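> forwarded from #structure-qc
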């Protein structure tokens, strides 16, 4: 993990890669971005197409937040940028959660 400046504070487009209220409350923009891409991901038929969509999400967030992006606190409480692999896993977890939520909503309406 790459340590960020000591005075770094997460911005609106940074994605906190953690569990709990702080991450959930902060990651509104991330959830909206996932929702925006969910339909195209759902109709993607190849692993490459799905990977391209994940890359698009990753790149959009990194461009929107050049000093942060996908972040988490280290053991000492300092903000750090996570690896691309961890970020892509976070996107995958988010996609799955959004897809399941949408599926459940469709089933009950």
């Amino acid at each position: 993990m790459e340590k960020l400046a000591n005075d770094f504070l997460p911005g609106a487009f940074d994605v906190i890669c953690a569990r709990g209220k702080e991450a959930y409350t902060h990651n509104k923009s991330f959830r909206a971005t996932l929702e925006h891409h969910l339909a195209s991901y759902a109709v993607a038929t190849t692993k490459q197409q799905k990977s391209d969509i994940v890359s698009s999400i990753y790149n959009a967030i990194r461009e929107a937040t050049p000093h942060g992006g996908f972040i988490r606190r280290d053991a000492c409480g300092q903000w750090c940028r996570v690896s691309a692999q961890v970020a892509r896993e976070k996107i995958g977890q988010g996609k799955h959660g959004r897809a399941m939520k949408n599926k459940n909503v469709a089933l009950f309406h």
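QC bot note: The two ends are 43 Å apart (CA to CA). The longest helix spans residues 84-107.
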